[in-house]
Amino acid sequence: MRSYKIKNFLKELPTYGVLYQREVNEIVDAVCPRCNNEIEDWYHVWKCERNEVELEEILYEAIAEYEEILISDDKKEEVEILRDININFYETMLTQSDILLGYSNFCEVTRIWVKRCDEVAEIEKDRGIDLKKEKKNRGG
Predict the structure, then answer these.
(1) CB-neighbour burial class of residue 33 (10 A; exposed 0-12, middle 13-18, buried 19+)
(2) How far apart are the C-alpha atoms of 13 and 19, rounded to whole Å?
(3) Using CA atoms, how far apart are residues 36 and 87, in angstroms rounded to an integer?
(4) Is the pLDDT of residue 107 over 60?
């Protein structure tokens, strides 16, 4: 998980764009293997039409789960604080980013990345691509 966080922070997740650029194994182009519509870079991973969930949905679920924990622990004051903060938090997270043009401020979710990796592994298996073999050949 630490490796994922560092690579995600540096925008160096092993997307097809990165793997193609590094000439890894049998990756023949940088196009997303899930949608086949765009180059798969760090930004595309989070907005790919093949994602089963949207970032906003994950955000709402996480906050709702935390609120349920507070309620079950009978922390009424904290629940009220959370509800007050949520309105501003949702607005901030879902507004357009000034840095990542065309994206919201909420662009980091392991749920999307893990699902993407599982799907890509299946696609690669169907294509006969074995990235683990490539890693072993490099001494990894």
Answers:
(1) buried
(2) 9
(3) 37
(4) no
Q: Report how far apart, in Å, the C-alpha atoms of 124 and of each of 5, 21, 48, 119, 129 are.
A: 24, 17, 18, 9, 5
From the list 29, 64, 53, the residue with the least C-alpha distance to 114 is 53
Q: Can you tell me the distance from the alpha carbon of 102 to that of 108, in angstroms, rounded to the nearest whole number?
A: 15
Residue with tokens 């990796």: 117
5-11 own/partner pairs: CB under 8 Å, 24+ apart: 8/42, 8/108, 8/113, 11/42
Contact by Cβ (8 Å): 56, 94? yes
> How many other C-beta atoms lie within 10 A of the C-beta of residue 106?
19
Token pair of 1, please?
A: 């998980």
C-alpha distance from residue 135 to each of 5, 22, 46, 120, 132 (Å): 21, 12, 26, 17, 5
48-102 per-position pLDDT tens digit: 899 888 777 877 788 888 889 989 999 888 888 887 777 666 666 666 655 555 5
